[in-house]
Amino acid sequence: xxxxxxxxxxxxxxxxxxxxxxxxxxxxxxxxxxxxxxxxxxxxxxxxxxxxxxxxxxxxxxxxxxxxxxxxxxxxxxxxxxxxxxxxxxxxxxxxxxxxxxxxxxxxxxxxxxxxxxxxxxxxxxxxxxxxxxxxxxxxxxxxxxxxxxxxxxxxxxxxxxxxxxxxxxxxxxxxxxxxxxxx
Length: 184
Known about the structure:
By secondary structure, this protein is of the alpha+beta class. 36% of the residues lie in helices and 32% in strands.
């Protein structure tokens, strides 16, 4: 059996750091409102560049079929998402008179995957999807606010030069972690 729907593409997962503690320490209605606002902000900043496969709790599974991914385009998108996320946290903290102790991490991966439909749901399938989720649980980061670009993504991008003044740490087995704040 041959599947002609298999394509190469980017998997992007923005995920909230501190989410479990946030859920346990925030009233249900308030927490749901905050999370909905933050997820909506990320979706709005995306501006339909990526398709949405799933939203699960505090994470969005974005994808984009792309045979020539651009490091600079994706990196720029991550900075915009992070800045909008941080602005929204400040706005919500002020309007709700509460402290919101959440930060944002990103996983950027590349590879072949397919999709299938079940009812009105579109599901992604493949080793690339599982690998991206495994990268979320990496334990490698020294700070909660970062982007992890997998080796697979870095090897398949053009114009890889970084223009941002951020800390970068190469992890030979995994890829590159870019911190949004300086690591002390």
